[in-house]
Please model this.
Amino acid sequence: MTADTHSRTDAAPVRAVLYVCAEQGRVNPTLGAERAEQEGRAFAAAQGMTIVETVTDPYGQPDPTCRKGWRRVRELARRGETDMIIVRWPTAIAPDHVKDLRHREIDRLLEHGVSVRYSWAPLSQQGTVR
Model:
């Protein structure tokens, strides 16, 4: 985080946006999104973060810039309204076959002083990701 990007003190809780983009299940179409949101909220609580907004997108569009919700995430970062994006796993940002798009988006967030963390347990201990 840079001083000219955000005007929060170190004592203030981290402001996080929870981004949910999950594939729909066949039996229970909302289960993936529900789990991603529950997991993200639990992760934020365990880390002492404050979720300032939950942003959702339907799954399926590989380019995050073509999703209304992701464009909202970018806008919140640009305006300095968040310090962290919480997402369940990397493919929610962009699938592995277009991981260059994921890296581009994470780099863009980092330019605004906004980090990305994954809430899925095997990835959640990695700290800030690129």
Observations:
- The mean pLDDT is 88.
- Strands lie at 15-20, 50-56, 84-87, 115-118.
